[in-house]
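re: ur question from earlier - yeah i can do the single chain one, its not a big deal. heres the input i used so u can compare w yours
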Amino acid sequence: MRGDNDNPDVGAGGSFLPSAIAVFLPSILIIGGYAAAFATLWLLGRGDGALARLCLLVLAIGGPFLLAHAVLRRFTVRVDVMPHAVYVHTGFPRSAPDEIPYALIRRLTLARGPVSRLTGSGTLVFEIAGGARIAVADLARPGEALRAIGRLIDEAALAFVPDAEPLETAQSRSVLQL
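and the output i got, formated as tokens:
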């Protein structure tokens, strides 16, 4: 547990997970393409040639690795919308989540390409104070995630009211002023 506020914000839709179609589609297309090439070579009587052996090699070795990678991405990508921050799990091979307080998010955008539009997925791109960018690809319901996080960013901005007088003396400086 991360603390008192460690439960996803139910009103925001809780956790946003990746789209299974978006994660598995590239693997299925690659495996299907090599299988179709091998079947075509076999039907043309060239099933014992070098190109057919290459197709079999990719199907036997590359196919399981592609599917394993897709399964790992499916179960490790997640965006948890919490009341105080958003936890971003960018997925395999990275295991540790990034905790991003809403006050540090400078810009949140949704990127969608042609395949993302086809599968109904998208990539959330967080631009953090200091210039860092964190992207979470293949999310299902990316529009809902964008609206939920945007609402909490706006609430965090409204809740922040700076003091009228600085509390620092002339000798002390903030880390941000260095």
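Helices lie at 20-43, 50-76, 114-119, 142-159. not sure if urs matches, ping me
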